């Protein structure tokens, strides 16, 4: 006859072991692995997971312009325009010429949103 406490202990130990294995697997991934996971998460609409993956890329490779630009795309899709703009700025700073147009388009869009908001507040 099993003791209920033994089952709880085993489940807790099993959960801790799984967590340890996930951490080890996470640490073994390269920035390219994290980048690919981020792209896949973004394409499947898992936006927070995508941001987390691009964060890992940037932890491993702080000057990765593609990671900044793609994380900016995720923030843009979430309506987080300030965060998107910051990421596009960092991508430009890291040498991405493609991010220049993304940054400039977003700046123009933010300016239009501010004008609309101001007009609505004036009414």
Notes on the structure:
The longest helix is centred in the N-terminal third of the chain and has 25 residues, at 4-28. The chain has helices spanning 4-28, 31-43, 47-60, 65-77, 81-93, 98-122. The chain starts with a helix and ends with a helix. The chain is elongated. It contains six helices and no strands. The protein has 123 residues and is mainly alpha-helical.
What's the short version?
The chain has 6 helices and no strands. It has 123 residues and is mostly helical.
Features:
mainly alpha; disordered N terminus; single chain; 6 helices; 123 residues
> Total strand count, please?
0
Q: What would the principal axes of the Cα set say about the shape?
A: elongated
Low-confidence stretches: 1-9
Query: Distance N terminus to C terminus?
Result: 75 Å
Rg is 21 Å
- pLDDT averaged residue by residue: 86
Count of helical stretches: 6
SSE string: HHHHHH
Decide which structural class fits the backbone.
mainly alpha
* Percent strand: under 5%
Report on the biggest sheet: none
Q: State the helical fraction.
A: over 70%
Task: Explain the layout of strands and helices.
Blueprint: H1 4-28, H2 31-43, H3 47-60, H4 65-77, H5 81-93, H6 98-122
